[in-house]
Amino acid sequence: MKKNILVFKHMTSQNPGIFRDFAGIQNVSFHEIDLHAGVKIPNLEKFDGLWVMGGSMNVWEEEEFPWLIEEKEAIRHAVEDLNMPFLGICLGHQLLAVAMGGKAVNTGRYEVGLFEIEPTKAGLNHPLLHNLKDSEKWVNAHLVEVIEPPKNSIILATSKACQNHIMQVGKNAYSCQFHPEVCSHTLDGWMKIPGVPNFFEELSVNGLEDLTSSITDNLEVNNKASFILFKNWCNLVFD
Length: 239
Known about the structure:
Blueprint: E1 3-9, H1 18-23, E2 28-34, E3 49-52, H2 67-81, E4 86-89, H3 91-99, E5 103-119, E6 136-148, E7 153-158, E8 166-169, E9 173-176, H4 186-191, H5 196-203, H6 208-217, H7 219-237
Parallel strand pairs: 1-2, 1-3, 3-4, 4-9
Antiparallel strand pairs: 5-6, 5-7, 7-8, 8-9
């Protein structure tokens, strides 16, 4: 039976991306809603899983983005009360941590571009990382980091600049700080977000043009790894 996954988006360009191409193969369908556009959160129990995508806002900006309050409660309810299969990406990773009692802050460290992600000792033989290389380069665009993971969580992967890159919370909730969803149209969408081109230009190692070309050149490798990650996640949570 096809699994129906509810997807919380925070802007149009932050969407399941390449995972849309993989959904049919994994017998999954995505029901995407944009919380920033004012769409109300439906009854979670009507869905088989919950994904929370990225966004340019921060987890603590509840006054400017009041829907964050309800979103955090929905995440907590899904993970703690319903034990729903969950995947958070970038902002979604941080929201999972905060909703479950952890802490995410701007540490002054940042990763913008392609960075190697290494499994921790706990992640080396974890099924989520099965058949992924020991060191993968993934797309990153973040200033905020989860510095205190929630209780009942395991850090599965890290990088030189960010301690918590892949996290498991409880049995069925997983999240990653990097962006495995990036596909051919993702960068075009990101560049339309106010402030993002300057953000990339200022913080990427060799400027905007080098950043975009390096991501594009590595896209085929990234997408193959993303498919493996997706299969592993589905096998873990939909047993």
